[in-house]
Amino acid sequence: AYALEVGPGEELVKIPDITAPGTWDTIASTPGTDYFAGDFVGSDYGKLYVLDTTSNELHTLDTNTGDDTTVGPSIPLSGHFWTGATGTSSGTLFAASTNVGVSHLYQINTTTGLATTVGEITNAPCIIDIAINATGEMYGFDVCIHVLVQIDPITGAGTVIGSIGFDADYPQGMDFEDRSGTLYLAAYNATAKSGELRIADTATGNSVLV
Q1: Distances from the Cα of 5 to the Cαs of 35, 122, 184, in angstroms?
Q2: What does the pLDDT look like over 130-149, one tens digit per residue?
Q3: What is the CA radius of gyration of the chain?
Q4: Which residues pair with 208 in a beta bridge?
């Protein structure tokens, strides 16, 4: 797996063994960035698309060298900030934003960075990340009400599945492992005061610690 450390430092890392998520190799430092959203698009795992929530720009990171390329401005709705992104196998990049009251879904042009609003993610005031599986089903993680939400990628409509099962706070990440259909959460547990890797059940919303 690949991940972005956003605090206290900023770096792109590779986790060689997902069963031991606390051990990783640093690919490159990314100082001064706020890459709170990112994912691969299509089958190109050498290029990670990331959204900077401070500069409102789309960038790409080379997963071998860490080289950072600016694609272009990617601007969410007024008062919103980027929180999540997910790429499809067919080449579409979706993103999510929130103003800690309302969340929205977008499509991002990977050539220019242009953000096009899909719609409000209903029933989810604080979506912190999104993920789409190999069959096109999209899910989101709401960090304010601590639930897993299924999202219609055409309209943005959200349906609450259930409690995520832990006290989530601060930035979180999520992604599917396409072959198995497993939904992993890169989580911060406020009760345990620790970063955790978890697996979420898409039928119930509940997650368990890896």
Answers
A1: 9, 29, 16
A2: 999 999 999 999 999 999 99
A3: 15
A4: 199
pTM for the model:
0.96
Q: Specify the length of the chain in residues.
A: 210
Q: What percent of the chain has pLDDT over 70?
A: 100
Reduced DSSP (H G I as helix, E B as strand, rest coil) percent helix, strand, coil of the chain, to 5: 0, 55, 45
103 vs 191: CA distance, rounded Å: 25
- pLDDT value of position 8: 83
For 20, the token pair is: 């031991």
Long-range contacts at 176-180 (CB < 8 A, ≥ 24 apart): 176/131, 176/132, 176/133, 176/134, 178/89, 178/133, 178/134, 179/134
Has residue 1 got a pLDDT over 90? yes
